[in-house]
Amino acid sequence: MKLNRRRLLGSLTAWLALPATVRAAAPLVQVWKDVSCGCCHDWIVHMKANGFDVRAYDEGNAAARHRLGVPQKYGSCHTALVDGYAIEGHVPAREVQRLLRERPSAVGLVVPGMPIGSPGMDTPAYGGRRDAYAVLLLAADGSTTVYASYSARAPG
């Protein structure tokens, strides 16, 4: 019995010595998108660069949006699921990280449309332009509140 306990404590000590980023598994983001959508691909790159593990399904997102309870009026080009929360559109990774820390009672986060300057819509093709947009927290009853706001920026 002592040998097993000693091994267990040794393994636990070694595990605790690892950086927290290594110890914690990256949250899995499942993304439903169109196969040819470049901005969806760029959003996935953004999420991966911010510590998320991403699995993409190139079958469109209408069925996923409906299944996850996101009304069409909040629609965008891709729909994701992370740890039970729906993520619709070009939501910045930092807001998803905040959502997972705070764990509010909600369907998830939405950025309706495809605002220029949001993650995935911020490539050099837009010349540094950024439109103002809001990340909305979507409640089960379909109502929303502003979760975060991003201001506009002119090119140059």
Helices and strands, with pairings:
Blueprint: H1 2-17, H2 20-23, E1 28-32, H3 38-49, E2 53-57, H4 62-68, E3 79-82, E4 85-89, H5 93-102, E5 108-111, E6 133-138, E7 144-150
Parallel strand pairs: 1-2, 4-5
Antiparallel strand pairs: 1-3, 3-4, 5-6, 6-7
Please describe what this structure looks like.
By secondary structure, the protein is α/β, with parallel strands linked by helices. It has a single domain, classed as Glutaredoxin (3-Layer(aba) Sandwich), CATH 3.40.30. Helices cover 31% and strands 23% of the residues. It contains five helices and seven strands. Strand 3 (79-82) and strand 4 (85-89) form a beta hairpin.
Key features?
156 residues, alpha/beta, Glutaredoxin, seven-stranded mixed sheet, 5 helices, 7 strands, 31% helix, 23% strand
Short characterization:
This protein is α/β, with parallel strands linked by helices and 156 residues long. The chain is built from five helices and seven strands, in the order ααβαβαββαβββ.
